[in-house]
Write a structure and sequence with these properties.
Oligomer: single chain
Radius of gyration: 15 Å
InterPro entries: Euk_RNA-bind_prot, Nucleotide-bd_a/b_plait_sf, RBD_domain_sf, RRM2_NsCP33-like, RRM_dom
Largest sheet: 4 strands, antiparallel
Number of helices: 2
Strand order of the largest sheet: 2-3-1-6
CATH superfamily: RRM (RNA recognition motif) domain
Pfam families: RRM_1
Protein name: RNA-binding protein
Shape: globular
Number of domains: 1
GO molecular function: mRNA binding
Keywords: Repeat, RNA-binding
Helix content: 10-25%
Distance between the termini: 42 Å
Number of strands: 6
CATH architecture: 2-Layer Sandwich
Order of helices and strands: EHEEHEEE
Structural class: alpha+beta
């Protein structure tokens, strides 16, 4: 079963491909996505990587958590489900 990882403190110039290449050293990457702001198109400094097995995901955490990517020390841990956020009523019609 695939395991999704949260990757924080990414360099702002990091790409999906760079993230995939890096985590490929720990195993098979199912997907890698740097999250970008929908208005500016600029990276938000974090992303998600999905590894093909729990074992590869654990290996990736051990290999990359608190290690450098470019000039930043990245954070890698198991992704948590997205929490429901309250909607801002002023934007609704």
């Amino acid at each position: 079963m695939a395991k999704k990882l949260y990757v924080g403190s990414l360099p702002y110039e990091a790409t999906d491909e760079q993230l995939s290449d890096l985590f490929g050293k720990a195993g098979t990457v199912v997907s890698a996505k740097v999250i970008v702001d929908k208005f500016s198109g600029r990276s938000k400094g974090f992303g998600f990587v999905e590894m093909s097995t729990d074992e590869e995901a654990q290996k990736a955490i051990e290999m990359f958590d608190k290690n450098k990517m470019g000039d930043r020390t990245i954070i890698v841990n198991e992704a948590r489900p997205m929490e429901e956020r309250p909607r801002d009523r002023k934007w609704e019609n």
